[in-house]
Amino acid sequence: MDVTGTTPTLDRLTSFLSLCPMFRIKNIRELTFLFITVCMLMSQSLADEQEFMEDFLKREFSLAKPYRGLGFSSSSQWDLMGTALVTPDYVRLTPDLQSRQGAVWSRIPFFLRDWELKVHFKISGQGKKNFNGDGLAIWLTKDRMQNGPVFGNMNQFVGLGVFVDTYPNAEKTHDRAFPYISMMLGNGTLSYDHDQDGRSADLGGCAAMVRNTVHDTFLLIRYLNNRLTLMVDVDGKQEWKDCAEVTGLRLPKGYFFGASSATGDLSDNHDIISMKLYELMVHRTPEDDEEEEVIIPRVDNMEQFQVAVEEEGMSTVQFFFTILFSILGLGVLAVVGLVVYGRWKENRRKRFY
Ligand SMILES: *[C@@H]1O[C@H](CO)[C@@H](O)[C@H](O)[C@H]1NC(C)=O
Ligand SMILES: [Ca+2]
């Protein structure tokens, strides 16, 4: 942005402001801040809308009706495992019975750079709230078809896990409501702590009422320019709600998509209705393409991320209101000051008589 271009705007802003007496204050720095903040907010929302140009459904990485030959035919792109079975309307990972594990795994390694996965799932069962479990997980990991304690998949996994956790295992649960959806990036040494519902390693999440709903429940995992965004549509309003987001997340290529689930003493039916993978088309600069490939998944500035989770900084909206109220406060102070000054002058005049 060149300097000469911005000056007339500032001049115009100043002359506009001098028209309204309320805003006639000497220091226009606050107002400039306000103006810039509004511009930033507007450009932000525009950027969000235009982030990618197009998306393309990739059938080889998608699981959708009709599930012809799924898990059996040699031409199928998916394998079934454990209790997983296919019906005309869904892939049931586990039935509403104790101690079951089931999974469905893609057979094809995945190499796309920017993508979005829409998962249509259903969790239902006889148990009352908090007498059901344990939930399901969506994966994009180095290993496939493993058994284990993380929603029916191995621990110390390498790659991405998104968990729909329907049972609070930790006793201190007042900090989050269940079912709780969260994500984690495994690097082979990090482990998912089932007794703590994965708190120590999760990269954020949200509560989502996803069990025994009358409407359809969806989640969306978007990976775009190394930013991972998790969104949910669980209220039957056909609208995505933000759940969690991590920037600077680096995921190696050649991993496998999967979905898994496990029941323990408590159970539920855990069904996948579809998993649709879209490739996202993005504008790129040459520098973007020269970016290093990682071998182990990681998040840049992990420490920074953890700080951000613990003590949230001022959001743009908070900043906007802080500035707004500062200006209003200054206005009130000015009026009070004028009144006091007027009284004082009057008193002084009186004293002279
Ligand atoms: C995995 O991540 C943890 C926590 O960030 C770190 O301490 C550990 O060294 C990492 N392991 C590998 C193999 O990179
Ligand atoms: Ca749990």
Automatic annotation (TrEMBL):
Listed SUPFAM superfamilies: Concanavalin A-like lectins/glucanases
Cross-referenced InterPro entries: ConA-like_dom_sf, Intracellular_Lectin-GPT, Lectin_leg
Any single GO CC term annotated in Swiss-Prot or TrEMBL for this entry: endoplasmic reticulum membrane
Family annotation (Pfam families): Lectin_leg-like (PF03388)
Residue span(s) of domain L-type lectin-like: 55-280
Annotated localization: Endomembrane system; Golgi apparatus membrane
Keyword Cell inner membrane (UniProt): no
Keywords: Disulfide bond, Glycoprotein, Golgi apparatus, Lectin, Membrane, Metal-binding, Signal, Transmembrane, Transmembrane helix
Keyword Lyase listed: no
Bilayer topology term: Single-pass type I membrane protein; Single-pass membrane protein
TM region positions: 319-341
Major localization class: membrane
GO terms, biological process: endoplasmic reticulum to Golgi vesicle-mediated transport
PANTHER family: VESICULAR MANNOSE-BINDING LECTIN, VIP36-LIKE PROTEIN
Annotated protein name in UniProt: L-type lectin-like domain-containing protein
Source organism of the structure: Anabas testudineus
Higher taxonomy: Eukaryota, Metazoa, Chordata, Craniata, Vertebrata
